[in-house]
Design a protein that fits this description.
single chain, 429 residues, alpha/beta, six-stranded mixed sheet, five-stranded mixed sheet, 21 helices, 46% helix
Length: 429
């Protein structure tokens, strides 16, 4: 009998591979499964969203998710998908990151203890810290051969590269394998899930469980996402798109999804939303009839901004988008508080002007040229004459308009718009 959880993953494009008999196992009883998260930063990013979606679907289908935050393995580094060894973090930084990530994950999963399948959070530093090196290689290392470990793709690729692989990273799969064994023995966890690049590490854990206990464990992987143009999912010119609003504002987060390609939107709306299959098919049909309206992108951006942040953050992202690219006006700008405004200007070009210039007031032409927004007064006057300059969303056409303290937003900013979509922020020094 087909398993409802796996069927859901398959039509959504979240299923890559699994070990034999997993469906039978899931059909028999409520199961515990874990996914590991790497605490190399104090926030997760959209590259982690696929794993989060796996856990949420798992819990929604009546099973119990376990979130493993790798306080121990984060000190070592996983070679899977990496071309070189990364920098290792100190324990204080790891503890800070762990705390932030745990708080973040509580927004997506139910940890309510009264719930039968409440999610658990564990830190593998708790069971690795008391183990001595000698006892680990004696009790665990003897069960996995070097031949077995070297046959893994992640290891072979690094061995063939110019950088090679350190002993530290080489042992990573053994550490992850022990995680699975520990959770199997102490939390009745029989399934590990992860990206398809984790298959080798996961099956090492299954092999270790088999040799140590004589029992069976299971694996399930999802595809690694890439953009339709072959680019890396979640990467932008400015870096990661974080789930923490202090690192990536809800507006920037919303804009990322709003600007994805049509091809990506058709697959990602299945992966990153909880909309049902019929609704998604209808949205794709509507999108194909009017691609310029970006129906899919708008719906993905809405669903994910609410899921990762909240309804208020989504509504403010809409206001900000309208302000910069739609019909937003001075009144719209005045709806923003200082935090919202700083989110608005996060990725806009910034120029400076002195406090003295503003206090004595200067003409709009002098402001535009002093800040080098325009290279010459003639070009600035031409843009003004063509009704192409706005200050704080207010159209300016008189070149003699004085700009002083009354124009400042939050006592130190002026928002200048030239043309339809080009903005520059003037900051008072």
């Amino acid at each position: 009998m087909a398993n409802a959880f796996i069927q859901e993953l398959q039509w959504r494009g979240l299923y890559s591979d699994s070990t034999p008999q997993l469906e039978d196992h899931l059909n028999k009883e409520s199961t515990r499964a874990y996914i590991g998260f790497d605490p190399t930063a104090d926030s997760l990013h959209i590259g982690n969203l696929v794993a989060i979606m796996l856990l949420v679907h798992f819990q929604q289908h009546g099973h119990q998710p376990i979130v493993l935050v790798g306080g121990a393995t984060g000190m070592v580094g996983d070679p899977s998908g990496k071309s070189k060894e990364r920098n290792l973090l100190d324990e204080a930084t790891l503890q800070h990151n762990l705390s932030k990530i745990k708080t973040q994950l509580s927004r997506f999963l139910s940890f309510e203890q009264s719930q039968k399948n409440a999610a658990l959070v564990v830190n593998n530093l708790d069971w690795f810290q008391p183990i001595s090196f000698l006892s680990f290689i004696r009790d665990i290392g003897k069960h996995i051969t070097i031949n077995y470990m070297m046959a893994k793709d992640s290891v072979k690729k690094r061995l063939e590269s110019d950088n090679g692989i350190s002993f530290t990273e080489f042992t990573y799969q053994l550490l992850q394998g022990y995680d699975f064994l520990h959770l199997f023995e102490h939390h009745c966890c029989t399934l590990q899930m992860g990206g398809s690049d984790q298959w080798g590490n996961i099956t090492t854990g299954i092999e270790l469980i088999r040799k140590k206990t004589g029992k069976e464990a299971f694996a399930l992987t999802c595809p690694l996402l890439k953009k339709a143009d072959g680019g890396k999912f979640g990467k932008t010119e400015s870096g990661n798109i974080w789930l923490d609003e202090t690192k990536t504002s809800p507006y920037i987060f919303y804009q990322f999804w709003l600007n994805i390609s049509d091809e990506d939107a058709k697959s990602w709306i299945k992966i990153f939303t909880f909309l049902d299959e019929a609704t998604i098919k209808q949205l794709i049909q509507e999108h194909d009839l009017a691609p310029h309206q970006r129906i899919l992108q708008k719906r993905i951006a809405q669903e994910l901004t609410i899921f990762v942040h909240n309804q208020t953050a989504f509504e403010k992202a809409i206001i900000t988008t309208d302000l910069l690219f739609g019909n937003g006006n001075t009144e719209t700008l005045q709806q923003l508080n200082q935090t919202d405004f700083l989110h608005l200007i996060q990725n806009l070009p910034l120029v400076n002007i002195t406090k003295q210039d503003i206090e004595k007031e200067i003409t709009i032409i002098d402001l535009l040229c002093t800040t080098q927004i325009f290279p010459s007064k003639s070009e600035a006057k031409k843009m003004l004459a063509n009704n192409g300059i706005s200050i704080n969303k207010q159209k300016i056409d008189n070149p003699e308009t004085s700009i002083g303290k009354k124009w400042l937003l939050f006592d130190e900013y002026i928002l200048i718009q030239k043309g339809k979509k080009n903005y520059v922020v003037v900051k008072i020094l």
